[in-house]
Design a protein that fits this description.
alpha/beta; 9-stranded mixed beta sheet
Length: 318
């Protein structure tokens, strides 16, 4: 993303909100960067699953959210259920992990915050992971889960996802919205947190944010994506939502940190969605790394982002 787009009100489009970093958050981000420096670009292979889940398990938990294992549409997973939730409404949250990592159990605390803020039950599907299950296994699973929610009589469903889960959430959004024309139930809206919208990895921020991103490198991303795609064209709309037909989609909100190689994946997707007539907005959080919303104890930006996401979802699920 070009710096002038962030700094110059005459250049900044109406769909872009830029949040400055506080001194407290800047110091916390610096400390995090130092702590993870030795691991940058090294998260790969099935051996990384345990450490990845361990990080996610440490997200601060809420005391008023309960968790329940279930199978929805044939897909196992976990419900995050806040003490007060809207009836007849639900969130499907597709977890991140670059298509290779992550579990519903490990993500339950983070999704509990989203469910509580939105005032709605949220289901996290344990979709099949690469490299054991290549594309389109994950897409098939999240679509089956969505149909399962509809089968339970839930009429208002919001689609949410982070990182690779954001990719799958936006693909699911297009699939479910298209099926609504054939008598299905359309999603009421979607939220994507730092999604990978372009599996061809053509975003400029892979270079412009290469040093700023504390976690990922382009070669690392290329390897993880290749293990997921197999022989599939990375520009297939079912793999990369950036290349899909975005016309007619419900409202979308995307949140991303400025210090991410994935910054342009968010920016370009929202730009295309707006051009297609979609109510889409992008929130860029300055000084924040990938996955900053998990830092509920460390970052004020995490709490503010989750509050904004919850407020949007509440309105869509009413």
């Amino acid at each position: 993303m070009q710096p002038q787009m962030l700094d110059d009100p005459a250049v900044k489009p109406a769909w872009l909100a830029v949040h400055p970093v506080s001194q407290k958050d800047s110091l916390a981000a610096t400390a995090l960067r130092s702590a993870v420096a030795a691991f940058k670009g090294k998260l790969a292979g099935t051996a990384a699953r345990g450490p990845f889940d361990d990080v996610m398990e440490r997200v601060a938990a809420l005391t008023d959210v309960t968790f329940e294992a279930d199978i929805v549409g044939g897909i196992p997973g976990f419900w995050a259920k806040p003490a007060r939730s809207q009836k007849g409404a639900a969130i499907i949250h597709v977890h991140g992990g670059w298509f290779n990592f992550g579990t519903a159990r490990a993500y339950r605390n983070l999704v509990g915050h989203i469910a509580s803020s939105a005032g709605a039950d949220a289901f996290i599907p344990d979709y099949r992971l690469a490299p054991e299950h290549v594309f389109p296994a994950a897409v098939t699973d999240v679509e089956a889960c969505y149909r399962g929610l509809v089968g339970k009589g839930i009429k208002k469903i919001a689609v949410v996802g982070d990182s690779a889960g954001g990719t799958l959430a936006l693909v699911l959004l297009s699939i479910a919205s298209a099926q609504a024309d054939k008598g299905g139930v359309a999603p009421v809206g979607a939220v994507a947190i730092s999604p990978v919208t372009d599996l061809a990895l053509t975003g400029e921020s892979y270079e412009t944010r290469a040093e700023a991103d504390p976690y990922f490198t382009k070669p690392q991303a290329a390897g993880l994506v290749a293990s997921y795609l197999g022989e599939t064209d990375p520009k297939s709309p079912l793999a990369s939502p950036l290349y899909g037909d975005l016309r007619g989609l419900p409202p979308i909100r995307v949140h991303v940190g400025d210090d991410e190689v994935l910054l342009d994946d968010s920016r370009r997707y929202v730009e295309r969605a707006v051009a297609a007539g979609v109510d889409a907005e992008l929130d860029v959080w300055m000084g924040m790394p990938h996955g900053f919303v998990t830092g509920i104890r460390e970052f004020d930006a995490a709490r503010r982002s989750l509050d904004a996401i919850g407020a949007f979802l509440t309105l869509r699920l009413l």
